[in-house]
Amino acid sequence: MTTTDARPVVPQTHPVTGPESSPTRSAWQRYRWTVLRVLSPIAILLLWQIASAAGVLSERVLPAPSLILDAGLELLRNGELADALVVSGGRVVQGLVLGGVIGVVLGALVGLSRFAEATVDPPLQMLRALPHLGLIPLFILWFGIGETPKILLVALGVAFPLYLNTFSAIRQIDRKFVETAVVLGFTWRQKFSTIILPSIAPQLLVGLRQSLAIAWLSLIVAEQINADTGLGYIINNARDFLRVDTIIFGLVVYALLGISTDGIVRILEKRALRYTAGS
Predict the structure, then answer these.
(1) How many domains does the chain have?
(2) Domain annotation covers residue 22
(3) Contact criterion met (CB below 8 Å) for 152 and 139
(4) Where are the transmembrane segments (predicted)?
């Protein structure tokens, strides 16, 4: 007697090869958002150029991107842009260092001491509530119209984000780590290098990113105070001659400087987060 297999016969299927599973499709799915992020500003520039060429946008109001580029190339050829970048960059660096040291030191002091929190923090919070750009007239009366008020204005804007982030990061350190360090007999230097610094580094870098954005914003305003050098001087001089293309180019340079410095800090931030995650 013969027996028949009652199991259903399942037809063999072959992998589908087509646009849905092609390597090109997979690569597009992986990088499409990056591509769109790059293409969107290019599309805006093209529409802007077309609208200017068609006469929809007046050159006196918003010049075409090609005219703005020509103005930038002119500044680059005559050396004015390089000189302005050196001066403006120096102002930001000086203000960032001064305000950064003040903010981190005060944040660490208030974060580590309850007495300092009760005595130092309230006046600092009152000062933080003031719009620091509104202090320009007072800074001019106190320090004149030279380099000092410009650097101090940048430093004042930089100090508070670093102060708040340092204070918050220190207060969020796991106390078990500190107690373990005490039990193991760590010195203050060992506790700082192995516990405090790695714990506060990520949030400190977040504060640095915020401070850099405020530093460039403060510089734009500060360089309007009778500046005779720097990007602000180029913009003021262009305003006097009704060179809207040069003004917009100067603002674009400010924006690019801000994005560049923020990108550098973001790279450092990723490394710090990877270090803390691995530890």
Answers:
(1) 1
(2) no
(3) yes
(4) 35-57, 92-115, 127-145, 151-170, 247-265
Helices and strands in the chain, H and E counts: 12, 0
Q: Is 43 part of a structural domain of the chain?
A: no
How far apart, in whole angstroms, are the C-alpha atoms of residue 89 and residue 231?
10
Which residues lie closer than 8 Å to 276 by C-beta, 6 or more apart?
Answer: 198, 199, 201, 202
Question: Domain range holding 199?
Answer: 66-278
Q: How far is CA 246 from the centre of its chain?
A: 24
Write down the pTM of the prediction. 0.77
- List pLDDT tens digits, range 61-100: 889 999 999 999 999 999 999 999 999 999 999 999 999 9
Please check whether residue 30 lies inside any domain of the structure.
Answer: no
CATH classification of the domain holding 205: 1.10.3720.10
